[in-house]
Amino acid sequence: MNLSSFIGLRYTRARRRNGFISFISAVSTIGIALGVWALITVMSVMNGFERELRGRILDVASHVTIVGYGGRLANWQAIEAENAQIAGVAATAPFVDGQGLMSAGGAVSGALVRGIDPEQEANVSNIDEHMIEGSFDDLVAGEYNVILGGQLARKLGVQVGDKVTLIAPQGQMTAAGLLPRLRRFDVVGMFSVGMNEYDSTLALLNITDAAKLFKVEPNVSGVRLALDDEDQAPVIGRLISDRSDLSYYVTDWTLENRNFFRALTVEKRVMGIILFVIVLVAAFNIVSTLIMVVTDKQADIAIMRTLGMSPRSVMKIFFIQGTMVGVIGVMVGAVLGVLTALKLEAIVAWAEGVFGFEFFPADVYVISDFPAQLQWLDVALIMPAALIASMLATLYPAWRASRTQPAEALRYE
Asked: Which one of 18, 89, 125, 131 is at 20 to 30 Å from 311 when CA atoms are compared?
């Protein structure tokens, strides 16, 4: 260890004659620690929310969807078999999509109607894992049964065993003119995936019944694909699209929810910038601390300069001293942030028990807990950024110390 480093570390450990300087130095260290702690914790919470929302979307949405133009996909069996052979495709299932009005008693609500194959649907979605009552096996072809989202069922005021009327937009010509197509369905199940978009609008029918209702038989609306890795959806989607004969188009879950996840990304970045300001404020405290230390150590600096120490070595002393404040704050904040992120759910549960209220009531918010997900990449970015901010804050005070003139400093000593 050279002389400049030794003196800089001694200044860091030494008790200063001016207690106010020590107090400001402690505040700087605590401020940096709090900033790093808050950054790691909040980034982990936002990662957890994104993971949770992404999982709930993928419980219903398919990874890749092949859709026929006009809502009809001809020769779908060959298209399904061909794409099932693509590396990375885990399962396939046909579907029929349509929209309509559902009524029960005096209640009416719009619905997104999806016809599914009960034997294949569980391979491409996780709705079966969120069933409140009933199962896909209850959707028997020809019996005109329906499974409703939990909120849709509540809006219609129906339960399992009740009947609902589905009004399809495709009319039928009669002697009295064009009349809407009506069909009575028995409610055989309900599900809740925790996303209002699906729970309040989605109704599941047997694919055969849906094809008859929406007049697409013997065709289907499209084919849904489940992948081994959902992050490969854009790549496999482009591959299928390049092989298309223009009778269908291809979309994937990243395109369908692009705006939603883009908004989450922007929100995460903005929150990171706002919280990093805490670190910058603490770094500015380092500036004031070191300026006061330099003023307090004028005589010491002058003596060292008189003994032959170069301005660069003097600058290094105070650079090391200020950097040590940043290092200690960053390390403490990182440890606290990682521990908090790993144990956040338990900490929140304890706090709710102590204060006697829920931070996110389950009857108000879609996600009622704190699903934190620690990503080490965030930690690897936050720690160096905070440390660099601390190091930059030391440059001006250290440069000012290096400009000290021995004769001026020792004039009144």
From this structure: 18
- Using left for φ > 0, alpha for ψ between -120 and 50, and beta otherwise, residue 151 falls in alpha
Neighbours of 238 (CB within 10 A): 13
Q: Which of 348, 301, 341 is nearest to 321 (CA)?
A: 301
- Give backbone dihedrals phi and psi of 2, rounded to 5 degrees, phi first: -75, 175
Cis amide prior to 180 (ω within 30 degrees): no
User: Are 96 and 115 a contacting pair, CB within 8 Å?
Assistant: yes
- Express each pLDDT in 223-236 by its tens digit: 999 999 888 888 99
3-state secondary structure the chain: CCHHHHHHHHHHHCCCCCHHHHHHHHHHHHHHHHHHHHHHHHHHHHHHHHHHHHHHHHHHCCCEEEEEHHHCECCHHHHHHHHHCCCCEEEEEEEEEEEEEEEECCEEEEEEEEEECCCCHHHCCCHHHHEEECCHHHCCCCCCEEEEEHHHHHHHCCCCCCEEEEEEEEEEEECCEEEEEEEEEEEEEEECCCCHHHHCCEEEEEHHHHHHHCCCCCCECEEEEEECCHHHHHHHHHHHHHCCCCCEEEEEHHHHCHHHHHHHHHHHHHHHHHHHHHHHHHHHHHHHHHHHHHHHCHHHHHHHHHCCCCHHHHHHHHHHHHHHHHHHHHHHHHHHHHHHHHCHHHHHHHHHHHHCCCCCCCCCCCCCCCCCCCCHHHHHHHHHHHHHHHHHHHHHHHHHHHCCCHHHHHCCC
Query: Other C-beta atoms within 10 Å of 311: how many?
Result: 14
- Read off the pLDDT band of 5 (50, 70, 90): low
Instruction: Report the distance separating Cα 305 and Cα 287, nearest Å.
Output: 22
Quick: pLDDT tens for 105-146: 888 888 999 999 998 988 898 888 889 998 898 998 888 999
Gap between the Cα atoms of 349 and 312, Å rounded:
53
